[in-house]
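Technical appendix A lists one of the benchmark inputs used to test multi-chain prediction within the project. The record comprises three sequence entries:
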Amino acid sequence: MTEGAVEAEVGRARLRKEDARLLTGQTNWTDNIQAAGMLHLAILRSPMAHARLERVDVSPARELPGVVAAFTGSDLAEGMGSLPCAWPVTEDMVHPDHPPLAVDEVRHAGDPVAVVVARDRYAAADALEAVEVEYEPLPAVLDLEAALAEDAPLVHADKGTNRCYDWPLRAGEDYAAVRERAEVVLKRRYHQQRLIANAMEPRAVVVTPLAASGEYTVYSATQIPHILRVMLAMVTGIPEHKLRVVAPDVGGGFGSKLQVYGEEAIALAVARRLGRPVKWTESRSEGYLATHHGRGMIQDVEIAADRDGRLRGLKVDLLADMGAYLMLVTPGVPILGAFMYPAIYKMDSYEFRCTGVFTTRTPTDAYRGAGRPEATYAIERIMDELAAELGMDPVELRRRNWIRHEEFPYDSIAGLTYDSGNYEAATDKALALFGYDELREEQRKRDERGDTVRLGIGVSTYTEMCGLAPSRVLRDLRYAAGGWEAASIRMLPTGKVEVVTGTSPHGQGHVTSWSQIAADVLGVPFEDVEVVHGDTRAAPQGMDTYGSRSLVVGGAAVHHAARKVVDKARKVAAHLLEASERDLEFTGGVFSVKGSPEARKTIQEVAFEAFTSHDLPDGMEPTINAGHVLDPENFSYPHGTHLCAVEVDTETGMTRIRSYVCVDDVGRVVNPMIVEGQVHGGLAQGIAQALYEEAVYDDDGNLLSGTMADYLVPSAVDLPDFVTDRTETPAESNPLGVKGVGEAGTIASTPAVVGAVVDALRPLGVTDVPMPCTPERVWRAIHGEEDPA
Amino acid sequence: MTRISVKVDGTTYEDEVEPRLLLVHHLRDRLGLTGTPVGCDTSNCGACTVDLDGVSVKSCSVLAVQADGCAVTTVQGLSTDGEWTGLQKAFHERHALQCGYCTPGMLMAARDLLKENPRPTADEVRHALEGNLCRCTGYQNIVRAVLAAASDEEVRT
Amino acid sequence: MIPPAFDYVRPHTVEEAVRALADGGEDAKVLAGGQSLLPLMRLRMAFPQLLVDTGRIPGLRGSRMEGDTLVVGAMTTHHGVLHDALVRRHAGLLAAATATVADPAVRHRGTLGGSLAHADPAADLPAVILALEGELVAVGPRGRRTIPAREFFTDYLETALAPDELLVEVRLPSTDGWGFHYEKFQRVAQAYAIVGVAALVRRDNGSIAEARVGLTNMGSTPLRAPAAEEALAGAGDAAAVKRAAGEAAEGTRPSRDTSASPEYRAHLARVLTGRAVLAAAGMG
């Protein structure tokens, strides 16, 4: 690279630094870790949704060859607190105890009952069969509405209710008055089925103790090593400075590894008790019971509008399935969505209420999008229904109500300040790429011909709040931590650079993107930057990776830290060049004196001078390393327009996606290749919710879709090629102008697909098909029948 | 215990194993070849795909004793002298991996396809990979990468 | 998850295998390709005490003709079946259906005999063998016997095989010249068929002279659709075929699961039978 003529790194489709290891099998998944004398844990889980534990006897398991120990919940109760919930959304929220290992009652199929410890994973699996348990069945609690009835059986008898909380939000004019005046009022009920994240790497945890000094290293397949360290210290009482948490290579998360899991606490407790390294790895079907689920809501949505399509008011009543316990952010997930129901639209009144409900099912918590996909689904689906009611094209209805680009910054009715956006530009681009008018024409012709395979078109114009989060806003929402992110930069004596980040990637490519950001500011080659992450000892400060926050907060922190390094380097360079700082130029990693270009120092030379510290300006601390902790001033608001065309075979009910076009505006783009990949993956998961996936329970609370053979994760055959494009309206709230992209595809695609299915069938009188739109549900909708489930 | 001899990535290993030991656990826990991961317990995900005597198999659904006398190639045995195969290069260049957990299986399944069908269509690639699940990429870049590897004589070597 | 412990033998001849099975009694199981059995064992839904691995017995793979009958070795893998020239010619329906079984890696290990002996009504090949009017040859301590496919599948995961009998070959009367089609309806590519229809058609002067319809996942065993078959005879156009296909669910007792109800399965059987027969007859 020629000095002084540097191509900007930000914006380049750099190939990933992460790939080399992953492509050659030189990986460090948690389950790969071996330690001398390591023991394996296996966990016995309740086969029943709800029961009293009359007797748990692990002694027969202890007798088996190769079994070192076995524990019940009571055995481990001492020194183990309740698993944490960091988001008590209301002052009076009902917050039950959540022992990592059940003591006297199990409350969902899969609730842990006992743990066995053996020499290898085979012996541990065998030992589970020797544990004797007597269950006294208690009634399952499954229906969200029935659970709130006066005489309903209780998930937590000591709490006297299954109602966890009521969380209201009212904004703008009085809704009842607005409704009264409105010319059209539509009410719909939508179900957000439970989903299972299915990160390809099952969860795993390894704990290595140093008994003599009471120190523990916890390796976990987690998205949140930093939060986990704090929480494990609180749960177990082990002093925080004696705990090191490492997230080694982590194979996907999608929210499911944004958690403090019982197994992490159990492994730590067992390692502490036995003084030996332990490993626990979940099997896939075990994970279906033990790893938190996503979604799980009933949404009653009412929209009030005028005949010309102008929105007047929106009312949302949610019942949110908490599952059996409150985990890290369980109650807060629907609250994140509360702010997104009004989406990109202007209206006079908004009323929201969410009721959290306990059931005897696996706890819910964040899954890609966390509250925002649910909100977007409801508003976009009811906008389609309103368009149909008004006889208006659904795109036109959106156009009449969205915030125009010249209106930014815009204070949304839900109280957010949208800093930037251009919904017109994204929509126009998407419509052109999709061939919207041509497809509508084909749809009309096919309808006239009476084709049994019908064409449907769905649209979704979404926005989301990303970049979690300004700490003061989190305080107002009663979230128990901040939303900042940390970065520091070490300029090594030889001119190489270490970026230390508090984000914890598990597929997102932070090492590559952060290198690009740092290389740009510092003027060093991309190849000379290494990124350190995911180890509380090496990267001690951080708030980790979730909620499309990493680039917006963590990447921006890297940018700020790098600028501080340059500022320090400038002082040293000015001193060495005997010039004033004002007279120095800095381009391509070179400081030079204006007007005398031969007087120059590279930033690497400056770094070495700062390392020796032989000749620093008076009063300056040695080294030019710098750190920055960034608390964002606002959320970021990616947006975009997604269009989907489906063909629905009305004889069988089968839906096939014919084309999918999306134009996303995620602000400035650091690495377009990575951004495109994030969009693809998000689309796949959103489409999967629309068409394929559901955690199905029977009337007794057993998970019927309990293995990967029953829970239908789509394969390459089941998904189409996507056409993706972008518009670029920079965010105003961070110096990079970035908005975040991890969740966009998932948020936007679900309503676009279901909208297309309903659009295909609307002339047959269909106004909704519950998700997932299975062939049978489509077939029944065509025949005017209710879903048999 | 049963005595077995399995050649893995060019090295022959003799071991006494329990008959129930799955090939993938033999690779991971006994031989320390952790490049091949486990993603499910129903043979749906394909993360553990390896080459067994010239054809792709799911090593979670093969007993180590069934591989006695056979040759296994894993993702760790693909590159020679540090030189990646065309598929590995194409996966890198087309951004066909994110978290990378499914990647070993994807590479082995794609390699199997190209041995049998060196010039597949996109549809054939998708069908050949139907037993390999990926949760990150939406598959589009994986399909692109396999097609690129198939069409690029130079990369294929 | 981890399979439970078992003893393991790897016989070199059919006779050794049969002896091992006889010695093992009720708790012995044949390990063919293992693609159904090993996942069940990993989920601890099957606990055999002894596995008799028939994978190395010579002579149980590949195909040959005996007169007009195609003989396929029970240990022939799905991949082998798919690429077998004799199968493609004389039992094209079997090749077509085998191409839809699971995925390539599973097809490299899974075997024709293993799939039939497992007798899962949701699996594709049992209904195909019924439609082909095949025979299954088993060897046991009492010798060798031939079981017609229609008597082989006795109940859900149950067959006419005794615990000490080994399935060694599948005999299929040649259907060279017949039209065939396997119509598989599934929610995602990896899922079991909600319903599958195996259609074989012999045409005469543009009409259907004889049709056979095998049904996947329409009861506790694979089934034929005799009422539809009878109605199809003589059908000369698409409308007649579809009318006849309306009889396809007669006498079936499909199950309910997370993917479909019995009523919907019955509906699908009718629609898909029409499609399969039209495709097989080249009348689409």
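Chain B touches chain C at residues 2, 18-20, 22, 41-44, 46, 49, 52, 55-58, 60-63, 65-66, 109, 112-113, 127-128, 130-132 (CB under 8 Å). DSSP finds six helices and five strands in chain B. Comparable benchmark entries are summarised in Table A2.
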